[in-house]
């Protein structure tokens, strides 16, 4: 049924105790006093904290909810409650239909059983008959690309093999609700792309809850978003881009550069963008801008100019671009002086997000590195659209015929 609400979460809260001994004592006291975990919300006792506090949302068939936030924000606790692994202290969860969950690497698999036996076990838990599982078995094995290893015990699988089998079972069983945690980060790129193609195919019949630190992935599939921070909702809504913006803004703390290598022949004294004042150490730049990068180098022992190059990394530390500025003259220079470099970077078409520039000085292009430092300059690209890919190229429609 269209627009059917498959997941409804009302006032969900869960608290934990930081100390095992205290936690056991509280548990005994609660049993004696007759307090049942989800009966009513109570005040925190010493050493207790809210893992999640007052979470509310509805998810309909065909919708995908992105859950984002730093480690410790409460995402995994929320997922475990949704999947029935732990009980809440307050609130209510209503889920209709079958739930396929990919929460922790290998979770739900019996390690001493083979991949094939685990497929039957998981299918049975989801309520499928053996005949129904038989009909899906080959499709699951093919999707997981485990034909040669399907009868091997799962305990001997690599992390990538476990992810492939877990996703294959969760997706091919056609669940009403599909819960996906960060486990997709373990797979190789080819398999991840195959997973997203499958999610696209099953999404119209499914409600998907997707947890990730990879914002391009979140923007790729999610129709609504919840940004969590220390157990509470910081942003919630259908404006996925706004939620991702707030997530990125939480990183605006001037992450310090880190020296990777030096032979003590030079050092980088200054790195900045001309005419732009940084906010907490990060330069705000609009998409399509042309900027001037300025570097001041202290020469300690070199007799010739170094060759300067840059690598741009995104927030997930993936290299997305290299810069080899043209026109560099590797002339003789004086010892113990300062060298100023200025490069113009034309029309930045990086998609929205935070990027870090790694500065590299070498004898010549890609040969004999003298000095390398990560996060020499950090920039935040502003744009109204959140992209799945690292580049948003400038284009315009010049001809259209109907």
Automatic annotation (TrEMBL):
UniProt keyword annotation of Disulfide bond present: no
Gene3D superfamilies tied to this protein: P-loop containing nucleotide triphosphate hydrolases (3.40.50.300)
InterPro entries (UniProt xref): AAA+_ATPase, ABC_transporter-like_ATP-bd, ABC_transporter-like_CS, ABC_transpr_TagH-like, Bact_Polysacc_Export_ATP-bd, P-loop_NTPase
UniProt name for this protein: ABC transporter ATP-binding protein
Domain ABC transporter: 35-255
Family: Belongs to the ABC transporter superfamily.
Any one cellular-component term (Gene Ontology): membrane
Pfam families xref list: ABC_tran (PF00005)
Species for this entry: Formosa maritima
SMART domains for this protein: AAA (SM00382)
GO molecular function, one term: ATP binding
Source organism, top-level taxon: Bacteria
UniProt KW keywords: ATP-binding, Nucleotide-binding, Transport
